[in-house]
Specification:
It is a single chain. The chain is mainly β and 378 residues long. 2% of the residues lie in helices and 44% in strands. Strands 5, 7, 9, 11, 12, 14 and 16 form a seven-stranded antiparallel β-sheet that branches. The protein has a five-stranded antiparallel β-sheet with strand order 6-8-15-10-13, with no helix packed on it. It has a five-stranded antiparallel β-sheet with strand order 17-20-25-22-23. The protein is globular. The two termini are 15 Å apart.
Length: 378
């Protein structure tokens, strides 16, 4: 159940018999109980920080690398220095030329972010512009692949209450970060290829932004202060594959069917090291591009997936890759410690030596796109 207020805290004054707000905006999640230890009162609940213009990354979430995204400005200003949508990512600059993106005068527009991979967005952070009295007054966020309006929530700074919006989400004209959380169900938010931030109302002569920051539960950003980053390494003859019907690129290993058990084929490995922000039990999902994308269904076989969950334990499974259309399958599940400077979980993908092979296939192939870790709540 969603809490009515993300502030979740208030003080009851017995002298006035009334509730009053705290000096800060409360917490970023619901409070379930309180306990007193000596002269201190502790709150217990599903929160990770205070809600004061938070710039932290909640556990289980990571910033998206916007440098790797395709950024498009709809109705960008004609003024040099303010018309590049790249201006507002990875910047700490003031609201000025080269650090701000503006729209044309008195026209609606949009800021579009196309991700390099499918993802599940969780949070959008925006900092408004106030350049020459301009600014964005209201936004509507849509999924790029189908223009579906996405439901958002935000913390009302005056009421200190979580509010919901869709067609028109308000954005104050100041230089604070303003957060909009994606609140649609998992089915709607899964495998989003990008988001369109439509500017439907503005201050002054037109809208724009000074900074933008997007967060999901998958990738890491070079703009982040995060010291431990996900990484990948490829050994062997893996080739990058692109298909017009598939979002992004993936890796393909093709081997002569008579060489499946050869040393070269069995040593070819894709190693992925995710960033796990919090220890816990996780499900591991593998994204498998459909074989119809490249008309190679006759060649598809199985992949061997090894998950090194901690320094002592690893589990191995075989995943069939004969799916005609794009699919995401649960691979394994287990306890994974948080990533640290000393250890990070790792996933290894190789050609399975005992996979099913079509009798008519001269070559066999396996593919690797991405993996997703999903925290199992308790």
């Amino acid at each position: 159940m969603r809490a009515v207020s993300t502030g979740s805290l208030a003080i009851y004054e017995t002298a006035t018999a009334a509730w009053r707000a705290l000096s800060f905006h409360g917490l970023d999640g619901p409070v379930f109980d309180f306990t007193k230890v000596k002269d201190r009162v502790y709150a217990v609940g599903a929160f990770t920080s205070t809600a004061d213009n938070a710039t932290h990354i909640a556990l289980g979430e990571q910033p998206i690398n916007l440098n790797a995204c395709t950024l498009t400005g709809g109705n960008s200003a004609e003024t040099e220095g303010f018309n590049d949508p790249q201006n507002i990512i990875c910047t700490s600059g003031a609201d000025s030329t080269g650090n701000t993106w503006l729209m044309r005068d008195k026209l609606p527009g949009y800021y579009r972010i196309d991700f390099p991979f499918r993802t599940t967005p969780s949070l959008l952070r925006l900092m408004n512009t106030a350049y020459e009295g301009r600014g964005t007054k209201a936004i509507r966020v849509e999924a790029a692949q189908n223009n579906q309006v996405l439901a958002m929530s935000y913390l009302d700074p005056e009421l200190r209450t979580e509010m919901f919006c869709g067609q028109s989400c308000p954005l104050p004209q100041d230089y604070n970060w303003h957060e909009f959380r994606f609140v649609d169900n998992d089915e709607t938010l899964a495998n989003i290829t990008g988001v369109i931030i439509n500017i439907v109302d503005w201050y002054g002569m037109g809208g724009g932004f000074n900074k933008v920051h997007a967060i999901d539960d998958y990738n890491s950003s070079p703009c982040s202060a995060q010291t431990i980053r996900p990484s990948s390494q490829v050994t062997g003859n893996w080739q990058q594959t692109t298909a017009a019907s598939y979002k992004g690129a993936y890796l393909t290993l093709s081997v002569n069917r008579n060489d499946i058990t050869s040393a070269a084929a069995q040593s070819a490995t894709v190693t992925m090291v995710p960033f796990v922000p919090e220890s816990g039990f996780y499900k591991l999902y593998m994204s498998i591009p459909g074989c119809q994308n490249t008309n190679t269904c006759i060649s598809r076989t199985s992949a061997k997936v090894t998950w090194l969950m901690n320094g002592k334990n690893s589990i191995v499974t075989t995943i069939k890759q004969h799916n005609l259309v794009d699919d995401e399958v649960e691979v394994l599940s287990g306890y994974v410690p948080a990533s640290s400077q000393n250890f990070s979980s790792a996933i290894y993908v190789q050609l399975a030596s005992d996979g099913t092979v079509d009798p008519q296939a001269a070559t066999v192939e396996v593919v690797v796109d991405s993996f997703r870790l999903e925290r199992i709540t308790s």
